[in-house]
Amino acid sequence: MKCPFCGDQESKVVDSRHSEDGVSIRRRRECLSCQRRFTTYEIVESLPIIVVKRNGSRQNFDRNKILNSMIRAFDKRKVEIAELDRITTEIEQTIQNTLEREVSTDTIGQMVLARLKPLDEVAYIRFASVYRRFQDVNSFIHEINKFLEEK
């Protein structure tokens, strides 16, 4: 493991433990050259997931796009970033567990909406407005009415 401080390749593991999410192992390392400590995470390598967009184009799955879209939906709302990161990890794991190599943006959007609904009503509507491409006020009203009926 390359030291982020001095670039030396030699380090020793000082401490190992499972991360909070249980998906990775957190390792504290000490560089044998400069004696500075740093943290690494070890995860199982997964097969790449291809996202099929609405226009038919394909691109590699990027969990940051999901996380950033939720952060935008929660703008000026109270939510812990750790909670949004947990949701993103949950969605990513669900997709990995399907063993499908391709997933549509519609499927991902539905997964996000299902997790936002119980968390925050305003963020849910904000995310839905972008995901479902609301064109006018009636689209908002229809989605809000549908939300209230299901509640």
Summarize the structure.
With 151 residues, the protein is an alpha+beta fold. The chain contains five helices and six strands, in the order E-E-E-E-E-H-H-E-H-H-H.
Largest sheet: 3 strands, antiparallel
User: What is the chain-wise order of helices and strands?
Assistant: EEEEEHHEHHH
Straight-line N-to-C gap: 51 Å
How does the helix and strand content classify structurally?
A: alpha+beta
Unreliable parts: none
Rg computed from alpha carbons, rounded to a whole number of angstroms: 20 Å
Provide the helix percentage.
40-55%
What does this structure look like?
By secondary structure, this protein is an alpha+beta fold. It folds into two domains: 11-43; 50-150. Helices cover 43% and strands 21% of the residues. The protein contains five helices and six strands, in the order βββββααβααα. Helix 3 packs antiparallel against helix 4 (121-131). The termini are far apart. The relative contact order is 0.11. The model has no long low-confidence stretch (mean pLDDT 90).
Helices and strands, with pairings:
Elements (H helix, E strand, L loop, with lengths): L10 E8 L5 E8 L5 E7 L6 E3 L5 E3 L2 H11 L7 H17 L4 E3 H12 L4 H11 L5 H14 L1
Parallel strand pairs: 4-6
Antiparallel strand pairs: 1-2, 2-3, 4-5
Helix pairs in contact: 1-2, 1-4, 3-4
